[in-house]
Amino acid sequence: MKQSKGFSILLITGSFILMLGLILASVRFGYQQTSFIQIVRSFTAFDGSNAHLVIQSVRIPRALIAAAVGASLAVAGVLMQTLTKNPLASPSIFGVNAGAGLAVVIGVTLFNVTSLHSFALLAFLGAGIAIVAVFGLGSLDRNGLSPLQLTLAGAAMTALFGSVTQGLLVLNESALEQVLFWLAGSVQGRDIALLWTALPYIAAGFAIALFFAPSFNVLAMGEDVASGLGVKTGMLKIWIGIIVVLLAGGSVAVAGPIGFIGIMIPHLARKLIGIDHRWLIPLSAFLGANLLLLADLVARYVIMPQEVPVGVMTALIGTPIFIYIARRVGTSS
């Protein structure tokens, strides 16, 4: 569905305002009750009270991380679906989550890594290696780097990384206890320093994605059409791989593997704004941020005073939507 420029701007602006509201709600609500006045005073007259400490050191980092991670995963999903022509494509299909998880598990089991900052570095490294492996394996076909080959290579590497990860965890139960919460995906208890570490990479990913948005529009019309119009499709695919590493890899490094956002949000955004990536990318970013912020808010209240990992919550939301998309694709093929 193609929308006018004015409507697209209005839609993106509304999504941005909603994101700001959800960030404020994320800071306001939770097990430790706080008020809007306390939020303001934590900035203007910080007194070291428990409420101010919770706001500054727990709630604000959590909200900002959720927004950044949700936005990154959504945009990575958009580009992967554009590249593979697969409506079920998401960062996990390229083995990003599996590669990051394997790197963390190797660090814990073989090198006794325990800190979240080390987890983040290992996860980013694992995500990068996974993308390189998938692109390398997908390029072995004589026809070059085709969407089908990429999808198959991603599925193969995901299965391989996942199997090795499970094997290592079976052999080392203490490692399972250390990484289980991270593997479930969560924005709870994450240090804001993790976000500042990953933010330059995430910001670079967004900037590159917006720069190549017109080329993505041409690629979406088909590889033959894009080549005929002078687009260097091979180089463009490599750029998409780089963007996915920066966005999805940075997200996994900060919050662990969180699924389904990269599948759900691109479909919703296309329904609302159409397929023009110049508008689709920013709208998907804000919608992804909104979804993860909302899922995190709900996760706080499901079994209060305990919390459900937000990765579990997005899976509960995303599974029926995934089934619906899969069924629709099956009936249309």
What features would you describe in this structure?
The protein has a single domain, classed as ABC transporter involved in vitamin B12 uptake, BtuC (Orthogonal Bundle). The chain is built from 14 helices and no strands. The chain is mainly α and 333 residues long. The two termini are 20 Å apart. 79% of the residues lie in helices and 0% in strands. Helix 3 packs across helix 13, helix 4 runs parallel beside helix 6 and helix 13 packs across helix 14. The model has no long low-confidence stretch (mean pLDDT 87). The protein is globular. Belongs to the binding-protein-dependent transport system permease family. FecCD subfamily. GO terms for molecular function: transmembrane transporter activity. It is a multi-pass membrane protein. Its main location: membrane. InterPro entries: ABC_BtuC-like, ABC_transptr_permease_BtuC.
Helix count from the secondary structure assignment: 14
Number of domains: 1
Under the CATH scheme, the architecture is Orthogonal Bundle
Q: If you average the pLDDT, what whole number results?
A: 87
The CATH superfamily label reads: ABC transporter involved in vitamin B12 uptake, BtuC
Shape: globular
Radius of gyration: 20 Å
Could you list the spans in which at least 5 consecutive residues all have pLDDT below 50?
A: none
Distance between the termini: 20 Å
Tell how many strands the DSSP assignment holds.
0
The SS-based structural class is mainly alpha
Helix content: over 70%
Q: How is the main sheet built?
A: none
